[in-house]
């Protein structure tokens, strides 16, 4: 089976390099409309629904951030995801995918991780309606950027780049529209290691 | 984010006593494995898909012991404070209440850390597992070790081998009756006593996981769907890899075909020509695992016939879809297939498919895998059917007759269509009866729809009972109502269960209200 996967060992190597928190410039092919944005995804593991992740995983490899595709349809792949999570103890996790896939990931994450942010992205006609809830600083920044970045793959990267946990924060809920994402309803979440949040 | 829920306390416990209880639990399992934060930790123990507010089942805390000794000590703490425990482990139980406790304030006893596969015996075909071992875990273990045994898994592969058997769940191979395949338990009683059931009661027993019944009354069944003890270990028989495996699917065009399908099926099943759990699955169930409702129909209310026809054409499925599998040497499978084919071919419009006919079909692939002992989570995709979809499973038993199948189907379909919901269901045919699983899918973000779903579920219980059909399992919110329908001779069955409860758990700390069985102190004035 050809699974786009960054292995646990590779993840640990990537994660270790994240200690120096190198700022990364998004590749222009991945973020043409927000080319000036700087992101640092190196200290977060991203779980990405296999239905939308192939392109992103390629991009993630270029950028050097750890990602793991997630599917409900394959036992071997599921085991690999569980392995990736056990190698990511203590690190933030960002997840993007279809509702059932993300909920399944959430069930596996909790309570070892705490879900601090959740986004619902619902396609309606030519627009996508975003409902975000989480730390004020995060929802504010995402609501500014989502309109510019314009598609879920780039959104996943920006979300992963904002994964630095803090102890204190105000929770805020925002709703806004953007240009239409691909025709599927998506959910995103960000989870912090239990002892941080 | 889920709505914020306030910290709750076990009934009758002061805040100071609760703090002392938590401190005592820290001493038993370590601070890391006691969860009390209502905002960040305890949502993991909510029922994300129920029709009542999360607060109705909000736990006060969760505690996760690592072994039997810690379970005993947790029970000791619970007895000391009179704190009720609600047991959960790796199985998620979504559709029936998830990991949430029956009442707000109970503590969750999370056995998920007890996840060791203690033994796999290839020669005799069994495994011994702790509560936290999932089907995916066991499957992976067998593959890694090259052991030629199959796992019979529930549809969601993260289900627990032990807890699913205790809840009388089913799988899809010939070993699909999980409680039947269970052999030998270890149980911790409320007073901390550890019991080995069946042959395991004999010191040095050579047959603990080979012969179920031991000597004297067979008590294992007492610990299924019950609150009489905490099961910490179980033997489960595993199916040897067969010399041949040939799964098949038969589609039927008309809703009315359910009668003829069931009549054709009964002799095949009772005579064991279909050894696996045979599945008759409706059109929308098969659709919901691979498409969204809005792909076909954007309006509220039941999907009209013209749209159903379009779905059937697009996905090459029927109004009903029958799944089974042949096992054994190829000549035997060939012979058996002739009989099965001839029985179903009499139904006009029946179409027959094998693996090579349905390449790339997600619904077929996961059904094929289930019949072949390969777990997945594909069925969970059903939750993409509508945005923010919740679900509850209504699960009455039915005789294997066309009349009964049709009567149950029409009863449920008509009730749910009238309430504005789609019928999404399947019949899982066992030894002598069928599990009729109706999944009620509703919009969690719509309070009115949630209320309608809740009412519909209660109405279905009453309507089914009036027709002589009882549920084999139900959601938390309806346990008292379902228990109330088993009322023959002034509820003598429930009264016996209550007598047993008072005897084996006089402290009333184990899963109060499970299946409608309340401890004496909580019995009066309780309701769902």
Taking the sheet with the most strands of chain B, its summary is:
8 strands, antiparallel
What are the low-pLDDT stretches of chain A, counting only 5+ consecutive residues below 50? Answer: 1-39
Number of helices of chain B: 15
- H-E string of chain A: HEEEHEHEHEEHHEE
- Protein chains sharing the most extensive interface: A-B, 32 and 34 residues
By DSSP (H or I, 4+ residues per run), the number of helices of chain A equals: 6
Notes on the structure:
The longest helix of chain A has 14 residues, at 50-63. In chain A, helix 2 crosses helix 6 and helix 5 (136-149) runs antiparallel to helix 6. Chain A starts with 7 loop residues before the first helix and ends with a strand. In chain A, helix 2 links the parallel strand 3 (45-49) and strand 4. Chain A has helices at residues 8-17, 50-63, 75-86, 99-109, 136-149, 152-161, and strands spanning 24-25, 38-39, 45-49, 67-70, 93-97, 113-124, 127-135, 171-179, 186-193. Chain A is an alpha+beta fold and 197 residues long. A seven-stranded mixed sheet of chain A has the order 4-3-5-9-6-7-8, with helices on both faces. A two-stranded antiparallel sheet of chain A has the order 1-2. Chain B is an alpha+beta fold and 528 residues long.
Task: Summarize this structure as a short list of keywords or feature phrases.
heterodimer; A: 7-stranded mixed sheet; two-stranded antiparallel sheet; 6 helices; 9 strands; 36% helix; disordered N terminus; B: 528 residues; alpha+beta; 8-stranded antiparallel sheet; 5-stranded antiparallel sheet
Topology:
The complex is a heterodimer of chains A (197) and B (528).
Chain A: H1 8-17, E1 24-25, E2 38-39, E3 45-49, H2 50-63, E4 67-70, H3 75-86, E5 93-97, H4 99-109, E6 113-124, E7 127-135, H5 136-149, H6 152-161, E8 171-179, E9 186-193
Parallel strand pairs in A: 3-4, 3-5
Antiparallel strand pairs in A: 1-2, 5-9, 6-7, 6-9, 7-8
Helix pairs in contact in A: 2-6, 5-6
Chain B: H1 15-29, E1 34-35, E2 61-63, H2 68-81, E3 85-88, E4 107-110, E5 117-121, E6 126-129, H3 135-145, E7 149-150, H4 161-166, H5 178-181, E8 182-188, E9 194-196, E10 230-237, E11 239-240, E12 245-252, H6 257-270, E13 278-282, H7 283-288, H8 305-315, E14 320-327, H9 330-345, E15 351-353, H10 362-371, E16 389-394, E17 397-399, H11 402-418, E18 425-429, E19 433-443, H12 447-466, H13 479-485, H14 488-504, H15 520-523
Parallel strand pairs in B: 2-4, 3-4
Antiparallel strand pairs in B: 1-2, 5-6, 6-10, 7-11, 8-9, 8-10, 12-14, 12-15, 13-14, 13-18, 16-19, 17-19, 18-19
Helix pairs in contact in B: 1-2, 6-9, 6-11, 11-12
């Amino acid at each position: 089976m050809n699974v786009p996967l960054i292995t646990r060992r590779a993840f640990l190597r990537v994660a270790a390099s994240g200690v120096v928190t190198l700022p990364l410039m998004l590749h222009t092919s991945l973020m043409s409309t927000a080319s000036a944005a700087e992101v640092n995804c190196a200290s977060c593991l991203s779980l990405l629904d296999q239905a939308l992740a192939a392109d992103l995983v390629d991009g993630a490899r270029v950028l050097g951030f750890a990602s793991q595709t997630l599917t409900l349809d394959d036992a071997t792949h599921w085991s690999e995801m569980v392995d990736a999570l056990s190698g990511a103890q203590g690190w933030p996790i960002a997840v993007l995918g279809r509702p059932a896939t993300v909920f399944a990931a959430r069930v596996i994450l909790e309570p070892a991780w705490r879900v601090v942010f959740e986004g619902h992205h619902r396609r309606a006609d030519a627009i996508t309606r975003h409902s975000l809830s989480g730390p004020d600083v995060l929802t504010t920044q995402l609501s500014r950027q989502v309109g510019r970045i314009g598609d879920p793959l780039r959104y996943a990267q920006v979300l992963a780049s904002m994964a630095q946990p803090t102890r204190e924060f105000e929770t805020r809920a925002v709703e806004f529209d953007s240009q239409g994402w691909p025709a599927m309803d998506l959910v995103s979440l960000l989870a912090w290691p239990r002892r941080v949040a | 984010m889920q709505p914020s829920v306030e910290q709750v306390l076990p009934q009758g416990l002061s805040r100071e006593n609760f703090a002392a209880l938590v401190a005592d639990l820290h001493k038993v399992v370590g601070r890391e494995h006691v969860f009390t934060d209502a905002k960040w930790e305890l949502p993991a123990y909510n029922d994300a898909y129920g029709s009542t507010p999360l607060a109705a089942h909000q736990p006060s805390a969760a505690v996760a012991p690592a072994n039997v000794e810690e379970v005993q000590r947790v029970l000791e703490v619970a007895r000391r404070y009179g704190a009720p425990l609600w047991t959960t482990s790796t199985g998620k139980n979504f559709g029936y209440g998830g990991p949430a406790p029956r009442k707000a304030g109970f503590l969750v006893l999370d056995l998920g850390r007890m996840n060791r596969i203690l033994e796999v015996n290839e020669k005799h075909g069994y495994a011994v597992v702790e509560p936290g071992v999932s089907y995916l875990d066991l499957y992976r273990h067998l593959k890694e070790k090259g052991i030629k045994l199959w796992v019979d898994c529930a549809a969601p592969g993260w289900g627990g081998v032990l807890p699913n058997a205790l809840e009388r769940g089913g799988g899809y191979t010939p070993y699909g009756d999980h409680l039947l395949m269970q052999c030998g338990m270890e149980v911790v009683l409320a007073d901390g006593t550890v019991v080995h059931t069946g042959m395991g009661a004999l010191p040095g027993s050579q047959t603990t996981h080979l012969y179920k019944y031991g000597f004297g009354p067979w008590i294992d069944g007492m610990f299924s769907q019950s609150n009489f003890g905490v099961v910490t270990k179980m033997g489960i028989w595993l199916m040897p890899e067969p010399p041949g495996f040939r799964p098949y699917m038969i589609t039927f065009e008309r809703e009315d075909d359910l009668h003829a399908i069931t009549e054709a099926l009964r002799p095949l099943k009772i005579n064991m020509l279909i050894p696996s759990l045979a599945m008759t699955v409706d059109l929308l169930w098969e659709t919901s695992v691979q498409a969204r409702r809005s792909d076909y129909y954007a309006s509220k209310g039941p999907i009209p016939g013209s749209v159903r026809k379009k779905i059937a054409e697009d996905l090459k499925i029927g109004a009903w879809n029958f799944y089974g599998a042949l096992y054994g040497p190829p000549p035997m499978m060939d012979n058996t297939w002739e009989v099965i084919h001839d029985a179903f071919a009499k139904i006009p419009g029946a179409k027959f498919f094998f693996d090579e006919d349905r390449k790339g079909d997600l619904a077929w692939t996961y059904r094929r895998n289930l019949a072949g002992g390969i777990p997945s989570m594909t069925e969970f995709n059903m939750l993409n059917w509508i945005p923010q979809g919740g679900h509850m499973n209504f699960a009455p038993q039915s005789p294997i007759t066309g009349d009964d199948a049709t009567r149950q189907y029409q009863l449920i379909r008509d009730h749910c269509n009238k309430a504005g919901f789609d019928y999404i269901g399947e019949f899982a045919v066992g030894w002598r009866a069928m599990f009729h699983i109706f999944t009620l899918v509703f919009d969690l973000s719509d309070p009115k729809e949630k209320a309608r779903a809740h009412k519909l579920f209660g109405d279905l219980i009453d309507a089914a009972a009036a027709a002589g059909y009882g549920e084999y399992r139900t959601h938390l919110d309806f346990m008292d109502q379902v228990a109330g329908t088993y009322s023959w001779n002034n509820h003598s069955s429930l009264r016996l269960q209550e007598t047993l409860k008072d005897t084996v758990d006089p402290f009333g700390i184990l899963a109060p209200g499970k299946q409608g069985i309340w401890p004496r102190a909580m019995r009066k004035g309780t309701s769902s």
